[in-house]
Amino acid sequence: MIDIKINDELELTDDKFLMIAGPCSVESEEQILGVARDLKKIGVNVLRGGTFKPRTQPESFQGLGEEGLKLLARAREETGMAIITEVMDEENLPLVEEYADIIQIGSRNSQNFSLLKAVSKYNKPVLLKRGFGNTIDELIGSSKYLALGGNKKIMLVERGIRTFETSTRFTLDVSAVPVLHEKTEYPVLIDPSHPAGINRYVEPLAMAGTAAGADGLIIEVHPNPKEALSDAAQQLTVPEFMELYDKIKRITEITRKNII
Amino acid sequence: MIDIKINDELELTDDKFLMIAGPCSVESEEQILGVARDLKKIGVNVLRGGTFKPRTQPESFQGLGEEGLKLLARAREETGMAIITEVMDEENLPLVEEYADIIQIGSRNSQNFSLLKAVSKYNKPVLLKRGFGNTIDELIGSSKYLALGGNKKIMLVERGIRTFETSTRFTLDVSAVPVLHEKTEYPVLIDPSHPAGINRYVEPLAMAGTAAGADGLIIEVHPNPKEALSDAAQQLTVPEFMELYDKIKRITEITRKNII
Amino acid sequence: MIDIKINDELELTDDKFLMIAGPCSVESEEQILGVARDLKKIGVNVLRGGTFKPRTQPESFQGLGEEGLKLLARAREETGMAIITEVMDEENLPLVEEYADIIQIGSRNSQNFSLLKAVSKYNKPVLLKRGFGNTIDELIGSSKYLALGGNKKIMLVERGIRTFETSTRFTLDVSAVPVLHEKTEYPVLIDPSHPAGINRYVEPLAMAGTAAGADGLIIEVHPNPKEALSDAAQQLTVPEFMELYDKIKRITEITRKNII
Amino acid sequence: MIDIKINDELELTDDKFLMIAGPCSVESEEQILGVARDLKKIGVNVLRGGTFKPRTQPESFQGLGEEGLKLLARAREETGMAIITEVMDEENLPLVEEYADIIQIGSRNSQNFSLLKAVSKYNKPVLLKRGFGNTIDELIGSSKYLALGGNKKIMLVERGIRTFETSTRFTLDVSAVPVLHEKTEYPVLIDPSHPAGINRYVEPLAMAGTAAGADGLIIEVHPNPKEALSDAAQQLTVPEFMELYDKIKRITEITRKNII
């Protein structure tokens, strides 16, 4: 596995397990600083938070943009956490890259090859999500756009695919973990929040992905999910996340990894 | 959760985890007795083995029929294990019921409502697999055919669904575990062998299902998978299974269950 | 293509197009005789009507059973139409075979291999539906169970498959028409009613399937769909069907077939 | 339905059927001019040809870029055909817009909301393809990004979705035609080439889509498909297309449309 150096203190290696948590969207200073402090106390070192949001409907909340990036930076300053946020286009890429420690490419842009080529020119770690309509081989194809462009600091994320089952928002394809480990040299993370769609399914999916051998998790946690401006149903509260964190820790002992 | 009494010694309750293992098909006395002894030593108490086989192509091995049932009974006699085997039709139901401790209804018969009604008239525990083209709600509908007919000794099995992903034979829908636990009162088992399709993916899927909160596993184990008459690629060897068994044990400690 | 002789007057050959219509379920004498007369006048020669119904939920209407078969026979007697009805199990197979001119195997029994073997021993034409979770190759496998058992009077039916799209009940896979024509020697019919799920989508799907080269249609028509005991939303009224019939006729002129 | 004015001579209205044809990729002057002349003679007025190609693998031919746009312009000059080509990113949007009469947004960018917003600021007609992993409602969501941005000259395209069936490259969802007609005011075109994946399935899918009520087709035609640099298997030869054109014409008479 390729080691992914995130900052001076964090490096994702074979024997490590990267825990990323934070709200779906950055909404306010109070929200992001509050949840960052809480997560840091639990042991989380990477804070997620969307500021440019790819929403299915144009009427939906589209994110705070640069204002959100600044709030994320403030959270980093205060807590020392690394921050990850999504980039949606080349136009905002320099801005996002300036603020973020990890650049996220979302599910809907997983085959946005122009964006992948542009991101490949930067030196920051990239978290590349599988498109919900994409095969594992297509995800690998997308990772090659980054690698051939010069950036091999890639973390792949399984986040659920489209199937006929409607009890959950997407169907988490846990088998992507062993298949990707076999076919690529990149760490594989699980996003249990989007396939769950409902917060009470996040824990079992997170545990499943971890037990399948994942190298990390990216989980949506919100100080007050009911009032979230996006993905309200699937975000965990801080206490829910804390409980999950302990269980994940025990599973990583079996898969021989230490949470970072 | 409804407690499922399998025989005088085995009862699947909330705090137990049922391990079922054995070959895809019963092939010979040597094969089934050999693997039964090995599995019993590891701690497995329920032996699986198909004798009536639902094969996609009529030219494929269709199972030993009653001869296979007799061999399963001999394995039970010698090892004390309970036996489970699949019934494909009402015609052979009395025969299967006579021999089996648990009656299995396979994925392709999950909506064979006539068979479900017939099985519901017996008193034996039933292991009902989800059809690979069925929603969770349809599986629950099928379980109601059993329950309304009089048999509530039902164990439900998630065994992978059809999706666009072709790296694995089917896509294991681990979220079926929490969803079924929420919507029904029956134990939920995971079959990691059929979604894996390839033996090296069986372990991660088994671990994922267990960590998601499953109440048991049903796994294909063959003394010599390469020479198996069906599902050669996905069956584990006995040493592979032994290694998996230990990891499953550790996960069940986290989910607070004891393997039976 | 194998010619399918249905009765002394009807034979489905390469240059013919078989129109089958009738209610989802036989509900009463008035209902089935009324709709049969109307359909016969329009030019339909094969009447469909379910008397043993495979319903997802056991509480749903399960069909009139033998009573329904008798009503179908009365409709045949009066109108001269051939009748087709579904068989769900070996137990009722002799009864169904006694009454029906064409034996239907439904989507949920498409891989009920025991039933296929039993039906293969009879000499009546068989209409075999694709399972909604089955690939085209699996449908062909199922047809081999019939052919190897001795019955090659097979008509294959594409009736929609399970996909992530929820605007329609199933997704009609029109490409199954050319693929099956290439890979088998059997006529291929389209069932536009089940994939549509809603009556106003039945016409476009019927026209699409016909234009794709299908050898026939099987359509649900009810004298009063709103009061139907099953599939109320997707059944056409007689006037709606009449309008569709004319359009289908014009398309079959392009595909060089004559409606029978 | 909203009327779409393409140029001074072409306007897609309710009673018209738009035929778009041309190679997957613009490869050379000889290729594109040759096929344009042939298509124009048959009656085609809009020429397609990719110059920026979204390829799954970075090693695949990525298109001729601006050079290809110039060749398309030369073909327009000579034949008078309108030209349509795909835009992959905001960077090349001004260039593409300068040359193209219709801007195409491909399946992989169907939820590239930044690109949609950028395209919405131009006044050219847009052909928006459904993402192969997207629901019909998501396609409608994407169209709203264009409309709210100021551009309602939208043509929607059904081009096949991801399903478990592997006999064809994608599964054409013909029901998208009536569903989109019901839910939006935009014309709906069918791309039969990508779902077919193999050229001999293109005709039945094109006919199916037309019979389902589509307002047009976009078909890949290449002077010598075997030597095509992309999508070699699914492109029609000119004689194959000519034969198809005549059949489509007869179907549009039934759906009351005139090919433009």
From TrEMBL, chains A, B, C, D:
Any one GO BP annotation for this protein: aromatic amino acid family biosynthetic process
Keywords associated with the record: Transferase
A molecular function GO annotation: transferase activity
Domain of life: Archaea
Domain DAHP synthetase I/KDSA per the UniProt entry, residue ranges: 13-254
NCBIfam families cross-referenced by the UniProt entry: DAHP_synth_Bsub, PRK08673.1, PRK12595.1
Protein name per the record: DAHP synthetase I/KDSA domain-containing protein
